[in-house]
């Protein structure tokens, strides 16, 4: 009997580390919580401005708690956030307000391009943690309730203050943000624009693609890297 238990103990001693390693590789939430701290890159058309850890955003703006309607889950949630406008002022100077677009590159390949004008109309925030000390994750009802990690940062909007934002869904709410870049859309994606003599229907379709599709899909190899080329 003692020999049996010694054999069983050796078996689980070798098995458990392998199981934990498998979880780390296959579960992004677990993996993110157990890897070295990541950075958020801030870039302008001239290149890298600065890289910061999410916690270092407190050197740029004061942290606050914000309650929003979490469209990914269909319920209200609270996050620890930094006002996006103040962060952009510190990283890019107030001249960022004259830029065309802000491109957010995410760890999962999602890459939305959001017009600067939207940030001047509505209040946006960079969330870095849940306000209730629970894991910084969500159950994404838009993706079969897949549990996803939200860090390094998650762009959210005060949609309780501005309910019109609810009609836009989650198209401008990227998570896992690793890079924030000021850019001219035409310069950043020259191969995506329809030709000058394109029909009005083509141009309208392009605007729809730009807002709702390009964050995941590409045209002529340009756009998001999360889904196939269109």
Overview of the structural elements:
This protein has 6 helices and 13 strands. It is globular and about 55 Å long. With 230 residues, it is an alpha+beta fold. The longest helix is centred in the first third of the chain and has 25 residues, at 2-26. It folds into 3 domains: 1-35; 37-187, no CATH class; 189-230, no CATH class. Strands 2-1-11-5-6 form a 5-stranded mixed sheet. A 4-stranded antiparallel sheet has the order 3-4-7-10. A two-stranded antiparallel ribbon has the order 8-9.
Brief characterization of the structure:
By secondary structure, the protein is an alpha+beta fold.
Measured between the Cα atoms of the first and last residue, the distance is: 64 Å
DSSP helix count? 6
Mean pLDDT rating: 81
Number of domains: 3
Element string (H = helix, E = strand): HHEEEEHEEHEEEEEHHEE
Strand content: 25-35%
Low-confidence stretches: 7-26, 28-35
Roughly what percent helix? 25-40%
What gross morphology would you assign?
A: globular
Summarize the biggest pleated sheet. Answer: 5 strands, mixed
Alpha carbon gyration radius: 21 Å
Alpha-beta content class = alpha+beta
């Amino acid at each position: 009997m003692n020999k049996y238990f010694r054999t069983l103990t050796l078996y689980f001693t070798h098995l458990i580390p392998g199981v934990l390693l498998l979880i780390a590789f296959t579960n992004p939430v677990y993996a993110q919580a157990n890897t070295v701290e990541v950075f958020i890159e801030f870039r302008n058309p001239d290149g890298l401005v600065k890289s910061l850890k999410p916690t270092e955003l407190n050197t740029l703006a004061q942290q606050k708690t914000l309650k929003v309607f979490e469209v990914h889950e269909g319920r209200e949630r609270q996050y620890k956030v930094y006002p996006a406008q103040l962060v952009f002022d510190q990283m890019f100077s107030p001249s960022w307000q004259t830029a065309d677009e802000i491109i957010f590159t995410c760890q999962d390949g999602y890459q939305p391009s959001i017009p600067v004008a939207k940030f001047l109309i509505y209040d946006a925030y960079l969330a870095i943690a849940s306000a209730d000390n629970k894991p910084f994750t969500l159950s994404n009802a838009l993706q079969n309730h897949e549990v996803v990690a939200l860090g390094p940062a998650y762009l959210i909007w005060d949609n309780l203050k501005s309910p019109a934002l609810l009609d836009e869904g989650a198209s401008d709410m990227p998570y896992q943000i690793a890079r924030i870049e000021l850019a001219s859309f035409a310069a950043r994606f020259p191969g995506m624009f329809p030709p000058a003599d394109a029909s009005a229907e083509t141009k309208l379709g392009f605007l729809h693609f730009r807002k709702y599709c390009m964050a995941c899909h590409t045209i002529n190899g340009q756009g998001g890297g999360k889904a196939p080329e269109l």
